[in-house]
């Protein structure tokens, strides 16, 4: 065999070796890809959901209207005048100013109301009419929701009628209550509250003598406020 034949065999061997190497490499790549596909891939945990921060602020002036019902009214009159089950409607207006120190809300509110809270007994009648209050408020803001407490000065017109003769006095006392307000829109809120009001006693000069009396009682109110 000559040199040409030997060289041809070398070429065949090299070609065969190269094919085996390429096939082995391809098999390795395919096997490695399949194995990698079976390995669980680490993923970053999804971030915890966070509710969007409310852009509502309770700071500022507001004004609105209210409507309610007074109950358990007691005129605490002497001389056997049992005017201690007074009830009736009440309604009026309120205005105030809040300052928010997140989440604490402090403010002051004034109200003017008309009420027809009455009780009758044996020719006697007690009536609680025009009234108002000036009350600091303290609340805890939870976004659009604001629960609060309030307490302050109260004043009102109390009338005692005895067999057609009557006398009225403007009385001064205190009031306290609690409630909750909800922001329907950035400008409008609705609320509900309970109040207890108590006045000192005064002398009412009516027929056949003087009746010493003063009003105290509860009310529940709903209202709407506009925030400026």
UniProtKB/TrEMBL annotation:
SUPFAM superfamilies: OMPA-like
Subcellular location: Cell outer membrane
Coiled coil: none
InterPro entries: Beta-barrel_OMP, OMP-like, OMP/PagP_B-barrel
Gene3D superfamilies attached to this UniProt entry: 2.40.160.20
Leader sequence residues: 1-36
Domain of life: Bacteria
Domain Outer membrane protein beta-barrel: 51-228
Keywords: Cell outer membrane, Membrane, Signal
One GO CC annotation: cell outer membrane
Family designation: Belongs to the Omp25/RopB family.
Protein name: Outer membrane protein beta-barrel domain-containing protein
Species name: Labrys okinawensis
């Amino acid at each position: 065999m000559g040199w040409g034949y030997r060289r041809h065999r070398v070429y065949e061997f090299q070609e065969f070796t190269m094919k085996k190497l390429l096939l082995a490499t391809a098999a390795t790549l395919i096997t490695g890809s399949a194995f990698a596909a079976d390995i669980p891939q680490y993923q970053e945990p999804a971030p915890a959901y966070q509710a969007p921060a409310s852009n509502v602020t309770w700071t500022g002036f507001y004004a609105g209207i209210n409507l309610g019902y007074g109950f358990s009214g007691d005129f605490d009159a002497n001389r056997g005048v049992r005017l201690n089950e007074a009830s009736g409607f009440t309604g009026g207006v309120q205005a105030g100013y809040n300052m928010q120190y997140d989440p604490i809300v402090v403010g002051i509110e004034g109200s003017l109301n008309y009420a027809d809270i009455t009780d009758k007994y044996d020719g006697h009648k007690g009536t609680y009419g025009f009234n108002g209050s000036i009350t600091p408020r303290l609340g805890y803001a939870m976004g659009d929701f604001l629960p609060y407490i309030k307490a302050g000065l109260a004043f009102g017109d109390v009338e005692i009628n005895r067999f057609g003769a009557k006398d009225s006095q403007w009385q001064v006392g205190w009031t306290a209550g609690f409630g909750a307000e909800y922001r329907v829109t950035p400008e409008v809120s609705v609320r509900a509250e309970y109040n207890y009001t108590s006045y000192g006693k005064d002398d009412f000069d009516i027929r056949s003598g003087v009746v010493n009396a003063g009003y105290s009682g509860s009310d529940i109110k709903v209202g709407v406020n506009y925030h400026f």
